[in-house]
Design goal:
By secondary structure, the chain is of the alpha/beta class. It folds into two domains: 19-151, Rossmann fold (3-Layer(aba) Sandwich); 152-403, Dihydrodipicolinate Reductase, domain 2 (2-Layer Sandwich), CATH 3.30.360.10. The chain has eleven helices and 18 strands. The strands form three sheets. The protein has a nine-stranded mixed sheet with strand order 17-16-15-14-8-13-12-9-18. Strands 1, 2, 3, 4, 5, 6 and 7 form a seven-stranded mixed sheet that branches. It has a two-stranded antiparallel sheet with strand order 10-11. The structure holds alpha-L-sorbopyranose. Alpha-L-sorbopyranose binds at residues 29, 181, 207, 291. GO terms for molecular function: nucleotide binding; oxidoreductase activity. InterPro entries: Gfo/Idh/MocA-like_OxRdtase_N, Gfo/Idh/MocA_oxidrdct_glycsds, GFO_IDH_MocA-like_dom, NAD(P)-bd_dom_sf.
């Protein structure tokens, strides 16, 4: 859809400035992270248009108004349909649990808006298919639909992709990916929406596994063609938070418990299209590991390793060097020649988690303005969803090889 052009005649403020009105649904963790991205991108990067935080939406009026004030949104809505209908919203950013992604994204695309949707794209393959189809129809009208795999925007990982594309690793043999957190180790940790299959789709698999599946395929430049999985829910009942316990036994004295309906941990192996082998581990039960997303890729000519807890660094081993001096060395990915870094701090000053959302906002705006193909697209999100479904199918069969359909 067309961007809004504020002219002198319209606003009285020279010179003409194009803006992109953003409307965001959801205001919790991801909402806060995306707000930061939209707020900051235009201040750091030279952008062809300026993102404007037009309106934020959530069901609870008091809470959403507080979020609007805190994160810098001009208006608050309590109905996402009203948000989509606003004339000052040209892009809808979906930061809600997975059970509402499809409905909101499809409605927004059909209303002529661009869409950025948090990962995983949906809770089921059928929903993701409908979203990818809606995105394709919208693309013909010039709209953009992007899925929020924000870790692609870590400069070290964008750079790793470029090195692999250049052939620095040669033919790939292995992708090893783990994403480890520990916030569910405590069995008294409450039963939030992330532990309900109906709301979240799956547990560690969709929450964390989606990221490493996407990164593995993005870095390798090829899809997984088959997987073999095991999965476990170690703690099967958890305390229901007071607000949600009404009507349940124990609601009155705060001892109500409910069933965990998703995986705490899922491990799987896979085969990439080229024949390279991959292994994945997604868990929220790894005591001591807070946000440990680690990747290692081995090829015929060398290897690359990355650890999100040291996200300004990339380890690289060039296997073509003489064995007497070859070995992993640390590349500090903070030079202005590295992806995204030209706009940030002098070399060595480093970036963090939140910058991925700033980079994401910049890329979404540029994709829209420059008419580029969206990346990662809803089709990419659908493909990840198919991998997740194959993993679940395999895990249900106790680790039987299951092909990923195309
Ligand atoms: C929670 O486990 C979570 O916030 C994920 O949902 C995010 O996608 C990940 O980036 C960090 O961990």
């Amino acid at each position: 859809m067309a961007l809004r052009e504020e002219t002198e005649q319209e606003t009285g403020t020279p010179p003409p400035t194009a803006t992109l009105g953003v409307g965001m649904v959801g205001y919790a963790f991801m909402g806060a992270a995306h707000s930061q991205g939209w707020r900051t991108a235009g201040h750091v990067f030279d952008m062809p248009v300026r993102p404007v935080l037009a309106a934020i939406c959530g069901r609870d009026r008091t809470a959403v108004e507080a979020a609007a004030a805190r994160h810098g949104w001009a208006a608050a809505e309590t109905d996402w349909r009203a948000l989509i209908a606003r004339d000052d919203v040209q892009l809808v950013d979906i930061c809600t649990p997975g059970d509402s992604h499809a409905e909101i994204a499809i409605a927004a695309l059909e209303a002529g808006k661009h869409v950025l949707c948090e990962k995983p794209l949906a809770n089921t393959v059928a929903e993701a298919e409908a979203m990818a189809q809606a995105a394709e129809r919208a693309a013909a009208r010039g709209q953009v639909a992007i899925v929020g795999f924000n870790y692609r925007k870590v400069p070290a990982l964008t750079h790793a992709r470029a090195m692999i594309e250049e052939g620095r690793l040669g033919r790939l043999r292995h992708v090893r990916a783990t994403y480890l957190q520990d916030w569910l180790v405590d069995p008294e940790s409450p039963l939030t929406w992330r532990l309900e299959r109906e709301r979240a789709g799956s547990g560690a698999l969709g929450d964390l596994g989606a990221h490493i599946v996407d990164l593995a395929q993005y870095l390798a430049g090829e899809p997984l063609v088959g997987v073999s999985a095991v999965s476990e829910t170690f703690v099967r009942e958890r305390p229901v938070p007071a607000g949600a316990a009404a009507g349940l036994p124990g609601a009155a004295d705060g001892t109500a418990r409910g069933a965990v309906t998703v995986d705490d941990a899922t491990l799987f192996t896979g085969r990439l299209a080229s024949g390279a082998l991959a292994s994945f581990e997604a868990t929220r039960m790894a005591a001591g590991r807070k946000n440990a997303l680690r990747l290692e890729i081995n090829g015929e000519r060398g290897s690359i390793a990355f650890d999100l807890e040291r996200l300004n660094e990339l380890s690289f081993h060039d296997h073509t060097e003489p064995p007497t001096s070859a070995g992993f060395r640390r590349i500090l990915v903070t030079e202005p020649q590295h992806p995204y870094l030209e706009a940030w701090w002098p070399p060595g000053h480093g970036l963090g988690y939140e910058h991925t959302f700033v980079h994401q906002a910049r890329d979404v705006v540029r994709t829209i303005v420059e008419g580029r193909a969206p990346v990662p697209s809803f089709a990419d999100g659908l493909q990840v969803q198919r991998v997740l479904a194959a993993v679940e199918e395999s895990a249900a069969k106790n680790s039987v090889h299951t092909p990923v359909p195309f």
